Amino acid sequence: MLKALRVDAAAPWKQRYRLPITYAVQIAASMPTRGLAVSNTSGTYQLYAWHVSTGEFTQLTNQPAGVAWGSLSPDGAHVYYLHDRKGDEFGHIVWVPFEGGAPEDITPDLPLYTSWSYSFSRAGNRLGLTAATDDGFDIYCVDVQANQGLITLSKLYHCTGETFGPFLPHKGELAVIATTEGTNTLNYHLVAFDATSGQEIAQLSDGEESSIETALFSPVEGDRRLLATTNRTGFKRPLLWDPLSGERSDLPLDELQGEVFPQDWSPDGSRILLCQFVEAVQHLYMYDVSNSSLTSLQHPGGTFGNMFFEPGGDIFAQWENAMQPPQLIALDSKTGAQKRVVVGAVGEVPAGHSWKSVTFTSSDGQEIQGWVGLPDGEGPFPTILETHGGPTAVVTEEFAPGSQAWLDHGFAYLTINYRGSTGFGRDFEEKIRGNIGRWELEDMVAGQRWLVEQGIAEPGHVFLTGWSYGGYLTLFALGKRPELWAGGMAGVAFGDYAIAYEDEAETLRAYDRGLMGGTPQEKPGAYAASSPITYAGQVKAPVLIIQGRNDTRCPPRSIEIYETKMRELGKPIEMYWFDAGHGSLQDEQRIDHQERMLRFAYHVLGT
């Protein structure tokens, strides 16, 4: 039975959204008393200078739409971030002094660009960045003189394939990118350049069917080995590559199942922290480079986010689970035991409901993993089936205020790692390519069937929700299998795939070309078959869409056209527009979005 709808200021679900949370912590490589963090202490996620020895945080940015990510220079002198226009992710990289001050544009002569990738050499003398415009991807190196400013901006490479990097060794003499250039896939290969002249030095590829993706160079001066991953075995596994000598070695990890991702080098380069994924559950290992030995770390359960070695030798890791919000903890690097909480959530955390990992079988026999949360009382319950964004992402056990809001009110909750999700192997991830929507929907339908068979869900009372790609899947499923759903709540979605492609930033267009094997002009039938608007006439259940006006990942025009079509057909649709980009970084705005979804579901259920 549903509980009374609570939207008062003291509602526990609102308290969870307002918890001051700090994440994405970094420590300056050569100035370990200085760090950088992202926090919502002000009510909006912004960048903060972290004085490590005292624990004090000083706010550095005050962007209206917030700032979700930045980078601290190795000497701790400056913080870098993309200064955009109300969350549209178009702008320039700027720097601001660690002590605070006005941001300064480091690329004033470039046009507006999007940039998802920039990094420093460990010595701090060179910064590499990728700037994406409508013309493609431009890769630059910026020479930096400590405390004096920028010297030169050198263009190394231009391409049209999706590209990440450049990644730089200790002194920045090389630059390595991961790119899909020359393919119509999402399979990457590595290209190494001389970072001064731009001359290509070497490439590393495992063939058209495999993908090699970069992680990071050794922190030791003169050691030019790069950590990367390859999925040539069917699962992502780490390798070491020296672009100058051409020497490559794949880490011998035959005893480990699933996918394994490198996280960080120890400061002396002797050990590598590894994270294993099996059924969306993580386990950490320490790999000794000298003797190829592997040690299992006995760490707490839950989910680890950003992980790195701190100068004293401990592992700093962002940790959370379904009932505990993200906090930075220190792990013993030899045993994995938790030693202390470095930065924790501030304030009392309202009691919540746990998640449980479950599996069920999809229509083709594939096992699908998900996380289920059950409210108090006996089922069946009205139920929320949520799909994550991406699709190249994965849901692990996480602190999700939205999930707990539904559970507080008596809804059951299931979030699934549908086909296309990462961490389950190459075949699982690539199954959707060229025909997005089909297999994801099969997995969603299998999840709905499992919920009913288990006595968890009331038939006809299953609601769909999701944001970004999960919002797209919500709209797609409402039209393709209309008989199964009570309603759908889509956030920052797209309704017409071809229109979305036209308006996206080039970072997303390149991704979509790889995902679909071409452009809408080259594959018009495939784009139409994967578009929710194609099936608008079949929609039966009410739909709520929450969309950002400044979104360049899922641009507004695609949803405007979908809304118009739905209204012409007389379909029940509610629209709410907010003034930001791809989602919200403001606590009160996120609370407003959740309240709108709660009210929508209660209205549909007639309560």
Which structural category fits the helices and strands?
alpha+beta
How many domains, as an integer? 4
Name of the CATH first level of the largest domain: Alpha Beta
Major pleated sheet: 8 strands, mixed
In DSSP terms, counting alpha (H) and pi (I) runs of 4 or more, how many helices?
Answer: 10
Q: What are the segments in which pLDDT stays under 50 over at least 5 consecutive residues?
A: none
Let me know the CATH homologous superfamily of the largest domain.
Answer: Alpha/Beta hydrolase fold, catalytic domain
Helix proportion? 10-25%
The outline comes out as globular
Oligomeric status: single chain
How far apart, in Å, are the first and last alpha carbons? 11 Å
CATH hierarchy: architecture of the largest domain: 3-Layer(aba) Sandwich
How are strands sequenced across the largest beta sheet? 29-30-32-31-33-34-35-36
Average pLDDT number: 94
How many runs of DSSP E, i.e. beta strands? 36
Question: What integer value in Å does the Rg equal?
Answer: 24 Å
Strand content: 35-45%
As for the CATH topology of the largest domain, it is Rossmann fold
What key phrases describe this protein's structure?
607 residues, alpha+beta, Neuraminidase, eight-stranded mixed sheet, four-stranded antiparallel sheet, 17% helix
Notes on the structure:
- It is built from ten helices and 36 strands.
- By secondary structure, it is an alpha+beta fold.
- The protein has four domains: 21-103; 106-221, TolB, C-terminal domain (Neuraminidase, 6 Propeller), CATH 2.120.10; 251-350, 6 Propeller (Neuraminidase); 360-605, Rossmann fold, CATH 3.40.50.
- The strands form eight sheets. The protein has an eight-stranded mixed beta sheet, sandwiched between helices.
- The radius of gyration is 24 Å and the shape is globular.
